[in-house]
Amino acid sequence: MKKLMLFTALLILTAGGFLLGRLTHPGTGHEAPPAAPDTSAGPAAAERKILYWRAPMDPNEIYDRPGKSKMGMDLIPVYEDEVAGEGTVTIDPVTMQNIGVRTARVEVTALRRAIRTTGRFVMDEQGAHTVSLKVGGWVEKLYVDFNGAVVRAGQPLLELYSPDLVTTQEEYLLAFRNARQAAGSSRPGVQADARRVLEAARRRLAYWDLSEEQIRRLETTGIPQRTITFFTPAAGEVMNKQVVEGQYVAPGQPLMDIVDISRIWLIVDVYEQDLAWVRPGTPAQVALPYAPGVTYTARVDHIYHMLDGETRAARARIVLPGGHHAPLKPGMYATVTLEGAPTAPSPVVPEEAVLQTGEQAFVVLALGGGRFRPVEVRVGLRAGGQVQILDGLQGGEEVVIRAQFLIDSEARLRSALGALAGHHNHGAAPAESGHAGHAPAAGMQAEGGVQVVRVTVGAAGFEPQRITLQAGRPARLVFVRTTDGTCATQVVLPGLGLGPVDLPLHREAALDFTPSEAGTFTFACGMEMLKGTLVVTR
Fold first, then answer.
1. C-alpha distances in angstroms, 371 versus 128, 137, 161, 431?
2. What CA–CA distances, in Å, run from 149 to 126, 154, 155, 157, 373?
């Protein structure tokens, strides 16, 4: 079983290396390449310049002269005209067909998105009234005596016996008689005082919610009423009834709630990534799972500002018509489709065209003639399998939507190896045949005789992943972690006995040392999940 698994892994690695070999040098397999350009083809062929040599099975194994790879295979030349420019790769039509390259045109259009979510019906909070009295007493008669009762405004609610009410009625009757007697007085001050006392007693009864009709009946009969009838302050359905007949109620004590049921609210969950598409006035289609074919058309009335910390969802409110006999009832659920407002016209590409590499995004441009180049873009909203491009594309370009991962990897390799070839062409000593040359560290600087290399630590790992230093010279590796989305919070060079060193976010952390011997070492994160290679040469 282990032999079978080993054979399968070796077969996959061999096939991957062969495909990269076909991308880099179409038409070349395991056959030995010529040691030098074939000048017999004419002047055009003689002008081709070799940048470097590489192993057929490992594009990262490069040399500056012909020979054999570590696997004993003839090296492949890479010509200057094959590297069409910074990060540009050329692929022949046969290879394009074999790896299934497909392209799409960048359209300039507006994005629209339909957000499908769920909601639950609740009572209209704006139509809720809590019933309480402003005077204490005993409930002698309760006319509305169960939850769910539908009442109209001004309907009798209860009869209350209150000693305070009886006393105040007697005071009002006394003031009323005094005012009538004072009306025949010739002294104006007496009449005014009597009217003020009468108005004060009348206001006290009114403040306790006695109606004008009840006060006039008191004046007509001249007899205080033992119990006073109170009426419902609003129309709606009774809920949360907390009073029974014979109970004493204190001023301000909640007796029941009366809720207006002519409207009903639908509270919809809008997840964080969808909030950009929803605003007050957004059209909504409401479907009821228990009533197939029934759809309500409405609009978002309000968006609540707080998100649920557990579900990461905000709430949007939709107001629908209700009623005692309406099919929409509090506690029910509904399926809601929100029609997001269209964006301003901008370049749009299919989602599969975008390559995400940690904090960056790329697309691969098809330049024509089998030439391709990855370009960095800034992405915006996503909808319907399309991605809005905010920066990096103008519209009308052709982008690769299939096999772009292989093309992007080859383009990055070409760019890096092109820089290496330029380094060799400027006086670098060629390596002996059969010994691989090494790329200089990206971002290498010499500061006062110290070899300084700056390494960025992102979500994808270390950049650069391969560093070359010279033995016997002081060196400094400066690491900067740019994201929390990585396990590399520490760095260590176990082969040199360095570290671990903490990597604070967006702050430099340096390793200072002087490599004494040539060799290949590994630098890694504290958990050794992300690794890079340090090559020390003589």
1. 69, 92, 95, 31
2. 19, 15, 12, 11, 73
Amino acid present at 516 = S
In whole angstroms, give the CA distance from residue 194 to residue 177.
Answer: 9
CA torsion 292→294→300→306, rounded to 10°? -30
Q: At what angle do helices 404-424 and 2-24 cross, to 10 degrees?
A: 70
How far, in Å, CA of 36 to CA of 282, rounded?
68
Which sign, positive or negative, has the C-alpha torsion 439, 444, 445, 449?
negative
334, containing H or E segment: strand 333-339
Q: Give the tens place of pLDDT for each residue, 69-104.
A: 888 888 888 776 655 455 677 777 887 787 788 899
Helices 188-207/163-182 angle, 10° precision = 160
Rg (CA), the chain: 42
Domains and CATH numbers, the chain: 16-101+403-430 (no CATH), 105-112+344-398 (2.40.420.20), 114-125+260-339 (2.40.30.170), 133-254 (no CATH), 438-538 (2.60.40.420)
List, for residues 440-468, the tens digit of each pLDDT value. Answer: 334 455 566 788 888 888 877 788 888 88
